[in-house]
Write a structure and sequence with these properties.
By secondary structure, the chain is mainly beta. About 10% of the residues lie in helices and about 35% in strands. It has four helices and 27 strands.
Length: about 290
């Protein structure tokens, strides 16, 4: 047939002269980008293809690389979605240079922000290579200086107990804190036997701590002076009634110490006479210390 004969050539076929139509395509031709029926790049039957090559005669002329099917480079890049923002800086794919910055595996955040629920670290866009940090394999880290974190969360020296250090800030605050040794000077351990001291307490320079208990139900005091009474242990009843001191403040729900069982962990009172007396004492005891008011 004509398609089996080179274009421009003639031959007798069945006694008739036939002019050939087969085009000589040479060593290479450009085609289109395509995928198999099963799709591109997924599944066992999927494949990529250069298709729609023009029909004709292809030959190698002794070249090992021929015949060759070609596709335009831009067509290939567009078909595969190859863009610089998907490639690391310093690398290239199909002639496209990467634009993703390569960062350090340990990099400083550029901003820190906080709200009532979370603290946020803002760090530059880019690729952070896997390293080992804090015994965690294949990790990257982003850090922020303590000073910036403290500023973001509003942490200042006056909000930290005096002498304590948080994020490199030494506390200067005093309001709301009292030392355990001031509240309970005779206790070996603040947590074991001394309840939390109330805020803003200043102890008298002449103060000495004494106990009201079943072994000592009466203490001599100075009329009109103020005293703090701490219950030890804080969860155990002390006795049925306490007299000789009017309540000024407490952490309990009642406004007076006199009456039945004393429930408050601490109470501040003003001595009405020269003695404070505990009646019907039970297992706990009251630490009594004079305070300035």
């Amino acid at each position: 047939t004509a398609s089996d004969i080179f274009q421009g050539k003639t031959a007798l076929v069945g006694g008739k002269k036939v002019t050939g139509t087969m085009v000589d395509r040479g060593l290479a031709q450009y085609g289109n980008w395509g995928c198999g029926d099963a799709g591109c790049g997924s599944g066992n039957d999927a494949y990529y293809a250069i298709n729609a090559l023009p029909e004709g005669y292809y030959h190698s002329d002794g070249n090992s690389w021929a015949p060759e099917a070609r596709i335009n480079a831009n067509t290939l890049r567009e078909s595969l979605g190859i863009t610089g923002n998907k490639i690391l800086s310093g690398q290239s794919i199909a002639g496209v240079s990467g634009t993703i910055p390569v960062r350090s595996g340990s990099s400083q955040a550029i901003h820190v922000g906080a709200n009532n629920e979370n603290t946020y670290l803002v760090f530059p866009y880019g690729y952070y290579p896997a390293e080992n940090h804090f015994s965690q394999n294949n990790t990257s880290e982003v850090y922020i200086p303590n000073s910036q974190l403290a500023s973001a969360i509003g942490l200042t020296a006056d909000k930290i107990k005096k002498g304590e250090n948080v994020l490199g800030i030494t506390g200067t605050g005093t309001t709301g804190y009292s030392s355990c040794s001031s509240c309970c000077p005779s206790c070996p351990s603040c947590n074991s036997c001394c309840p939390s001291c109330p805020a803003g307490i200043t102890f008298s320079s002449a103060s000495s701590s004494r106990y009201l208990s079943k072994d000592n139900t009466e203490l001599s005091v100075s009329p009109g002076h103020y005293y703090i009474l701490l219950r030890e242990p804080a969860t155990t009843n002390v006795g049925d009634a306490l007299s000789g001191c009017d309540v000024i403040d407490s952490d309990g729900s009642s406004s007076t110490i006199s009456g039945k069982t004393i429930y408050a962990s601490w109470r501040i009172c003003k001595a009405t006479g020269s003695k404070i007396t505990l009646s019907n004492p039970s297992g706990a005891r009251l630490l009594v210390s004079e305070i300035a008011h």
